[in-house]
Design a protein that fits this description.
Number of strands: 15
Radius of gyration: 22 Å
Largest sheet: 5 strands, antiparallel
Structural class: alpha+beta
Mean pLDDT: 79
Helix content: 40-55%
Strand content: 5-15%
Distance between the termini: 37 Å
Length: 450
């Protein structure tokens, strides 16, 4: 979970020709100011509510969300990713503020000037976008954390989207990571239990890989292959001759963004139908090929007019080791059969978990306690993700024994895996999905063996 008081952990001034502020102190101070101002506003609004007995004023909440949107939209990079995470977490912000921040997922705040877009495209592909495409929309249709997206049309008539990287974003991301590294090094001095260096290195490598759109193009094709058993999922095609390190061209998918689908408050049956497809999109490729889509925020999925689910943004996919994946495939098979796994700790040890405490059996017991909570969706035929009990019980379990919690060290590759499955759970929670999810897991297990 992310909260406003954690927002100030990041971030560099830059030459005027760059689009993204990149000075380390400047970025850090902007985030610190954002944290103090927004937290203060929300606390003041809460105090007024208590005095008056009324709900938090919508204007106060909307202003808080708009301030977050404007600041993180300008800073881009890891700061914008933080904003996207805030929009996913129902506990991080009041609903009205979170709804405004969710615009980060579908709009283009602090957009690049068209002249900057042309400069990047010309440097990467050798000509201006108006020359490379039969049609090119100068107005951005969406914003990503590292670039903005424009609609275009190829000369053969196909509709495409062009993602163009923000000038200077690599320096901004490097500053964000250096600021975070200071915190990581400080914790590392306290001993191995609090050291997050290995996980920081994994996250750093993943974020830096996202700067190379050639990597994302390759990961898009890998995900398409991994999802071949799921005709309900649609993956865009890479247009290789119009793509490079800082420009990515993909066939355009049309549909309703998942965040807009959630806001539309669809009926229960439709929420489960889309929730089932989300389950396929995250667990399906993993079970079949060990590949995870590790950025499942609602801006990366489209509910298409024909009922299929469009999957977007492959910069954070990861191929996990067989050692790790075999354990979680086993868990999925047991859950799909309606069985709660009774020996989670020893299996996690097989996956590469390390237990730094004095008594391994106590650690195993703690892991089992958590597993018994998170396996709850498969204990009944029908599970309702709108129930808050599961999420709060997980938090209470960690808070009940923080020393034990920090002494259990997952393997490094687990970082993106848990980002994937926890993000899926948050999506289903936001969606208020309710239905036979155990049966959906059984479908994944069956298709994965075909």
């Amino acid at each position: 979970m992310l909260r406003l008081d954690f927002v100030a952990v990041t971030v560099q001034a830059m030459p005027d020709d760059d689009h993204v502020p990149s000075g380390r102190l400047k970025r850090l101070s902007r985030l610190a100011y954002l944290t103090a101002r927004t937290t203060g506003d929300l606390l003041a609004a809460t105090a007024r509510r208590k005095l008056s007995g009324a709900d938090l004023p919508h204007d106060d909440l909307r202003k808080a969300g708009e301030r977050i949107l404007a600041t993180l939209g300008e800073l881009k990079g890891a700061a914008l990713k933080l904003g996207q995470a805030l929009a996913m977490d129902p506990d991080a912000l009041p609903e009205e503020a979170r709804s405004v921040v969710a615009k980060l997922l579908s709009q283009a705040p602090q957009r690049m000037e068209l002249s900057q877009v042309r400069e990047v495209v010309r440097a990467e592909l050798g000509a201006a976008p108006e020359e490379l495409f039969a049609e090119f929309d100068p107005e951005p249709m969406a914003a990503a954390s590292l670039g903005q997206v424009h609609a275009a049309r190829l000369y053969d008539g196909r509709e495409v989207v062009l993602k163009v990287q923000y000038p200077g974003v690599e320096k901004a991301l490097d500053s964000d990571l250096k600021n975070a590294a200071v915190l990581v090094r400080g914790f590392a001095l306290t001993g191995e239990a609090l050291s997050g260096r290995r996980y920081y290195d994994e996250l750093r490598a993943s974020l830096l890989r996202e700067l190379d759109y050639r990597e994302e193009a390759a990961q898009c094709e890998a995900y398409r292959a991994a999802a071949r058993r799921y005709p309900e999922l649609v993956v865009p095609e890479v247009i290789a001759e119009r793509s490079s390190k800082r420009v990515l061209c993909l066939t355009r998918l049309r549909g309703q963004l998942l965040i807009d689908f959630i806001e539309s408050k669809p009926p229960e049956e439709e929420r489960f139908r889309v929730g089932r497809l989300m389950l396929f999109a995250i667990w399906g490729p993993f079970y079949a090929t060990r590949l995870v889509h590790a950025d499942p925020h609602p801006g990366n999925f489209l509910v298409m007019p024909d009922g299929r689910l469009g999957v977007l943004d492959f910069g954070a996919t990861k191929l996990l080791s067989e050692k790790f994946a075999a354990v979680y495939r086993h868990f999925l098979e047991e859950n799909a059969a309606g069985r709660v796994h009774p020996d989670v700790g020893p299996w996690l040890k097989r996956a590469g978990f390390r237990f730094l405490g004095d008594d391994e059996e106590d650690a195993f017991e703690f892991c089992q306690k958590l597993a018994d909570i998170v396996q709850r969706p498969i204990m009944e035929e029908i599970y309702d993700f709108s129930s808050e009990a599961l999420f709060w019980e997980v938090k209470r379990a960690f808070r009940s024994d923080p020393k034990m919690a920090v002494s259990i060290k997952p393997p490094v590759e687990a970082l993106l895996f848990y980002r994937s499955v926890a993000g899926l759970a948050q999506d289903l929670r936001l969606m208020k999905a309710k239905g036979p999810f155990r049966a959906a897991l059984a479908e994944i297990a069956q298709r994965g063996k075909e």
